[in-house]
Structure prediction request, 982 residues.
Amino acid sequence: MSKAIYRCIELLRLLTNLQLPQANRMVRERTMYLLQWARPERIMATSNFPIKELRSTGPASRRRIWNLAAPHFGLILQEMFGHIQTLMKWMSLDQLCLHNKNPCTKFSQRCNPSISSHLSQLISHRREPQMAENLIRFGIVGCAEIARKVARAINSAPNSAVSAIASRSLDKALNFAAVNGLPETVKVYGSYHQILDDPCVDAVYMPLPTSLHRRWAILAAEKKKHILLEKPTALDVEELDQILDACESNGVQFMDGSMWLHHPRTAKVKEIISDPKLFGHVNYIHSTSTTSGTKQFLEENIRVKSDLDALGALGDLAWYCIGALLWAKDYELPIQVRALPDVTKNKAGVILSCTATLHWGKSSNETSATIHCSFLSHTSMDITISGTHGSVNVYDFIIPYQETSASFDITSGAKFAELHIGWNTKPEEIEVVNELPQEALMIAEFSRLVQAIRTRGSCPDSKWPQISRKTQVVMDAVKKSIDTDCRPVYL
Amino acid sequence: MSKAIYRCIELLRLLTNLQLPQANRMVRERTMYLLQWARPERIMATSNFPIKELRSTGPASRRRIWNLAAPHFGLILQEMFGHIQTLMKWMSLDQLCLHNKNPCTKFSQRCNPSISSHLSQLISHRREPQMAENLIRFGIVGCAEIARKVARAINSAPNSAVSAIASRSLDKALNFAAVNGLPETVKVYGSYHQILDDPCVDAVYMPLPTSLHRRWAILAAEKKKHILLEKPTALDVEELDQILDACESNGVQFMDGSMWLHHPRTAKVKEIISDPKLFGHVNYIHSTSTTSGTKQFLEENIRVKSDLDALGALGDLAWYCIGALLWAKDYELPIQVRALPDVTKNKAGVILSCTATLHWGKSSNETSATIHCSFLSHTSMDITISGTHGSVNVYDFIIPYQETSASFDITSGAKFAELHIGWNTKPEEIEVVNELPQEALMIAEFSRLVQAIRTRGSCPDSKWPQISRKTQVVMDAVKKSIDTDCRPVYL
Prediction:
């Protein structure tokens, strides 16, 4: 099995060296991720292999380590094969070889014999191949800026593909397809109704202004389309409940577009703050999401328009902070939510900046938290979690500084040095490598759930709609407190 | 002049190599600071020399750089000579040479001729030498744990020395002197009255429990002792005003023991957040000060006793956070202060943990802030300042991780990369080297002011008592809000 893994790595290296006409910057970047992913350290980390042992070991012991990791190789290989397949899809090679009965014939005409040889040997190791008919076909409803990022993610996730796009204007949709290099096979619609009627669309990604969510998400559910809905999910929880009811009664999966929840760093931080010895009880959480809007943004952007994204910075930015607090508290709802008096609104009454506090429990599970969101301050996206025995800081929790890895700081058991002239420890930076960008991991997870519904008759997973609903409930509470002169709102 | 600087550096190097019996760990560490301080880069930074030019310059241009920096050399040399003197004081060499009319005679008997030669040539460059009679003589009133750190600072600052110590118990005072290696010339008293009556004590450092501050600080002022008072300065501003009145009417200097304000990092951060282009308007500040008290601490420490430090975590920890907010806001008082409902108290009603919000202005100078302090959470001392164009994070603002340098993170002009798949920049870590620990810099500043009063008849500097008073006023407001069920308090 380990030979197969080595072969995968070798294949990735060879693919990297290809200079195909289709190989653009994204293809090269993608390949670099995969190669990075294929580093033995990464494989060990993925397979829960004791990574410290690896770090302290010289090259001579490499063989022993491979042997120790062998039990995990089956899964690794399967995952790695998926990556190679994705890469080849990027290079437009998948039609030529992977989906061909004799996969290597045409491929070998274009590539060097080594690749062909590696590939044919690897085919035998392949499990549950992702044939084209198994990919979840996405329709993108609305050509917002964020849709560019998600379109790329849909095409880089191993189990999905963009099948169609729609805008209210056909020209805008055609332009979107051209600018983002979508293949000609992607259908382009000038109406949301048309894309929802397309039987080749399994799921929709919906980056529409919040005020349009209820109408189009309910219609999509009625058309049996699974729904990935941009945040904030709705103007209030009553609207969201109508959307969720429609999803439930039509048996379709619902998920909101909070990408950061799918980054492996998020899971790693959760693991640490859940460790009673390392971290202890979560006492205090602070989270910010700010971005300094230009004059044009503050005058024209849909996020500050009362008829489009009426929740302003609360919906666009605090959604993340609220989601982060709930995530850290295992989705227990706070008992009290209160806005602070520093609310700034524009002339139309849309929130540009606000701060709020949240409190959980009165007994052993007590936690307090503060959040701050603003369109008026420099970019920040911090979450700081303070426990009895440790503290964690993440400074880029919503969008990591870079795509291929993300880090956070952990301090545990910090004491002052003799005479209190320093600390006995400094925060340790922990880096988490991600094989796919967080948005592609979100798409992959969503597509996995949709696939399970389609192929195995599974029920839609209730975890994701519940997360969205709780976030919306708390956001509503902040809004209510703002609207009632910062009175506390009890949940 | 630059030759003299080179000579200083060389002398420091030679001193480092000495293996004198008195050379303990602290001496070695101290010498390392000085050598670090003596790096050309550091000298340039101190003298406002354009450091970027130096970094981009090869060794060939060194000569040109020295010439450019020449105008600053007078001051640098003077400061460096002070450092050498401090070092020799540490090594118990000062009695042998610097304060001797023929300084090099005895010194050369013990040290190698190079040191002696360097020293004798340097004497000619010396300006305003700090003779023993010019050192500010400190009496330490109370042998608290923190007094150990401050005693060391008094003896390492260039213009001060510990002259006497006092405890209510003579045994405790004797033990303190022995444990901390104080010279036999230091007088030891078993009563606070005695030390205040000692005419050889110019100034007192007073690390007593807060409830004793009013009585002893007023008495010290009446005895014409300058006062360095540990924080929190008093139980409330009425008490503090009585202390400050006593200082003013007796013409003595007052300062509280907030060491971090004296670290050069603090000035550097201030410079950055005051830069309109780099940082813009300060919109939001968040600061925490937490430490996880052991069971014993939470039961027995004076900081949780209602008759000793009745303000608990608010006085001991939030003092720093409040001070940091006021510092960031150029000591403008907030208009509103409000505690949050997460207050935790012990059975005696002493605050163990609390959170509060502060708001400034309603117009262009609006700022909001949150602070959190706790004896129940893992060590943290963060201040995050969020401006229109930049943000700054300091994670060890009260006690830096290490003594010799401290850093902070600055991000300015951060935007998202194309497709929002990352950032265009990451926080830059800026390191600030400090020639003396922050507590020694505090002592040096306090002693400088006392010296000016003594030798030039200057008035006591009103800056430091004003800072203490504003901090106390805001602390009182948080306390009042806590005591009135979290009602807002308007200032």
